[in-house]
Structures are given as structure tokens and as C-alpha cells.
């Protein structure tokens, strides 16, 4: 089976993947800002090829406490989709969703966690929908799973998935924020085989990017 | 001046006192700390996957796997003078970060499998495991001091544990 050689991906391909992240996250942001009734901005998405040892430092360091809603993606594209938001921002966000009726203090009630999970589900769903209609590929998200922990520990999960196939991690990251307190990320990590499918579905030639599998 | 040397994901480092070794935010990965108690040489490897032989694709990083990672760590410790026959081990990590498996693959159980693989390998090498703090569902930051052999484990909302 032919596989993508990560070293051969040129700037053009990075730009295409960035645009993909832009459209996906844009759609997700629209969903989020409708839900919150406020304006949400996002930064230019980043497509990063990382050594595993640098993965933890992706967002404010390995020990930054984040709330993460993660979905597995199955179908024509397989991979992981993550919605990560810094703990304090998550509290702020969920308080907004619950019209100010959230629990006081730093921690989350059962109800708030469940609401966060659903918010994550809806907006990552919006992201994946945009991706599916742009690429004409079939995507099926799994039910969401939520955790609150150190960023490094959370990111080890998709890193391990990717580690089965190679020594580096390629991901599409979009950061979003509002004028006050919300600060979070979308991270799409297609499995390495799925990158080939994504790029070719968008009409890009991929032959030059492949390595023959000779084992 | 003592220094705490950082070990990244799929990475390994060795040191001597007064230095220490740390790895931040261990999730399903396992931090295997080895120590030669006579020379007080310490080593820490951050393992991502259980078995290098069960994997397709090209791999150039021995620290990624339990089998090659532990072997490589011992080799580097031996270069500093440590003796294989004296080594002792402590383990931390191997958590299951998400309660629901989001993928159909068996990666959901990877934390447990990583811990199990490390134990099997250490047993085969006749390296005694003095203590462990593994499993459960939370991430850990660890610091290993080869001088005392103390392995400090910190988690979100929990007290520091020393094993």
C-alpha cells in the first residue's frame, strides 16, 4: 500500500489543508456564535508537522488544564477531532450557554459537563459537515467523550494513534476567541492514509507524495 | 546547580545527581524510570506504544516503544557506567484518558497495554519493579530523582504522591 511521505508535503498542500481548517472551523464558529449569541473570532489556522516531543507544548504547555471533547471520525476519512478549551474559558462559555445559571466556582457540575459535551458535539459536527461537503467524502463522527486534564496527557491520545504509523504528527489547528474570555482550539488529526484521500478528493495530485510500502 | 531535565513524548534521557528528570502531562503513555542504586545513575523513558514489532511503517525513534525504549535507555545508562544487573524500575502513567472509546481500534486500551508491555519486558530483563502508579483516568506529571530514587507524581486536583 502506498503511503504519504510527510517530508514531501509542499507549501501548496499545507495551504490547502489550512483552507480546509479555515472552512471547517469557520462553520463551527458560526454554530458556536449562534448558540452563544455573541461574536467569535478565529485566527488563521495552522497546519503543523510536529515531533512527538513538541506536541505537548502546542497550547500553553503540557500542564495547561484543558477541557476536551473528542470524537473519532470513521468513514472515508478516519482520524480524531478535538475541541479543546482552557478550563476557565470553558466555565465562561458554559455559563453563557446556561444563561448565567451555571454553578459558581471553578469546577463543573454534572449538568455543566453534559452541556459542554453537547456543545462540543454540535460544533465539531459543524466542522466535520463542512469538511464532508467540501471533499464529497463520507464522515461519521463517533459519540463525543469529554475529559478535563493536562493538555499533554490529552494530546497523547491522538499522538499514539498517529504514532502507530510514523514518527511525526500532522495536524490542522484553529484557534478561536471572543472579546472577553473564551479561548479555545479545534484540532483535526486525520490518520495518515486519510490525508491522501482528502488531498485527492480536492483534485490535488498526490502521486509525488507517496512512498511505496516495501515491507 | 541542579537541573531538572525534560523528557518529551517518545523521548528518553539519563542523568546523575543532583539533576532530576521530568516528563509533563503523561497520559496513556508510560514513564519508566530506571536507576542504578550504587552509582545513582537515573534514566527516564516516555513510552507511547507497547511493541515495535507489531507496527507497520517506518520508525526511527526507539524511545517510542516499550521494547526498544527500555533497551535503549539501559544502553545509555550503561554508557555512563550503570550495571544492568543492579537496575531497579518504577512506573507511572498508562491512563485511559477518555471513558468512551472514540475509535473502533483497540487504541482505547492502550494505557493498560503499555503498562503490561513494560512489566513483561522488565520481568524478562530481571529488573525489579519497586513501585508503580499506573492506570486510572487522569494525566500525570512525574519527576524522578536518581539520588534518592524518589519518583514524584502530580495530577490535576490531587496531592503529590512519592513512590
Written description of the protein model:
The complex is a heterodimer of chains A (about 220) and B (about 160). With about 220 residues, chain A is α+β, with helices and mostly antiparallel strands. Chain A has one domain: CheC-like (Chemotaxis protein chec, 3-Layer(aba) Sandwich). Chain A is about 40% helix and about 25% strand. In chain A, the strands form two sheets. In chain A, strands 2, 3, 4, 5, 6, 7, 8 and 9 form an eight-stranded antiparallel beta sheet that branches. Chain A has a two-stranded antiparallel ribbon with strand order 1-10. Chain A is globular, with a radius of gyration of 17 Å. By secondary structure, chain B is an alpha+beta fold. Chain B has one domain: 60s Ribosomal Protein L30, Chain: A, CATH 3.30.1330.200. Chain B is globular. At the A-B interface, α2, β4, β7 and α5 of A face β3 of B.
> The CATH topology of chain A, please?
Chemotaxis protein chec
Portion in helices of chain A:
40-55%
Query: What is the CA-atom radius of gyration of chain A, in angstroms?
Result: 17 Å
What string gives the helices and strands of chain B in order? EEEEEHEHEEEE
Choose one word for the global shape of chain A.
Answer: globular
Count of individual domains of chain B: 1
Helical region count of chain B?
2
Average predicted local confidence, pLDDT of chain A: 83
Largest interface (CB within 8 Å) is between: A-B, 43 and 38 residues
Would you identify the CATH architecture of chain B?
Answer: 2-Layer Sandwich
Summarize the main sheet of chain A: 8 strands, antiparallel
CATH architecture label of chain A: 3-Layer(aba) Sandwich
Q: Can you write the helix and strand succession of chain A as a string?
A: EHEEHEEHHEEHEEHE
